[in-house]
Amino acid sequence: MKTNGINPMIRKLLLTMGLGLLVVSAVLWPAVRVDRLNDHFAKVEVNDSKDSVLALMGAPWKDEKCGDYLGGQPAGCVVDFIYAHPYAPYAPQYWVIDFDSQQRVINKVHLVSP
């Protein structure tokens, strides 16, 4: 007997495969993102322009006045770019780049909480 729609066995298989792909993506995407952040962060140098940092790192998670989000600030800091782990604050890992009034990098720090 022929039924309308997809065979229930195939439907169950497709649903299981879709859920499996979703779980794998949820695990792999953060690992790829963190690896990319580490690689690009290593290329940021003191005195780089804000535009060059944006081109290299992409848009930050937070673009704040120095010290507003994480506290503390180096002398001369005007703006923090904060890049966060995809699962922050549950995976507390942040890449912070500080800029002076000339929009130049004056400091960078990778924060990881134990």
Structural class: alpha+beta
Name of the CATH first level: Alpha Beta
By oligomeric state, this entry counts as single chain
How many angstroms separate the termini? Answer: 61 Å
Helix content: 25-40%
| Biggest pleated-sheet summary | 4 strands, antiparallel
Following the backbone from N to C, one meets helices and strands in this order, namely HHEEEE
Total strand segments? 4
Number of helical segments with 4 or more residues: 2
Q: Give me the Rg, rounded.
A: 21 Å
Strand order of the largest sheet: 1-2-3-4
Low-pLDDT stretches? none
Global outline: elongated
CATH topology: Beta-lactamase Inhibitory Protein, Chain:B, domain 1
The CATH architecture? 2-Layer Sandwich
Quick check: average pLDDT?
A: 89
Number of domains: 1
Strand composition percent: 15-25%
Describe this structure in words.
This protein has 114 residues and is α+β, with helices and mostly antiparallel strands. The chain has a single domain (8-112), classed as Beta-lactamase Inhibitory Protein, Chain:B, domain 1. Helices cover 39% and strands 22% of the residues. A four-stranded antiparallel β-sheet has the order 1-2-3-4, with helices on one face. Strand 2 and strand 3 form a beta hairpin. The longest helix has 36 residues, at 8-43. The radius of gyration is 21 Å and the shape is elongated. The chain starts with 7 loop residues before the first helix and ends with a strand. The relative contact order is 0.15. The mean pLDDT is 89.
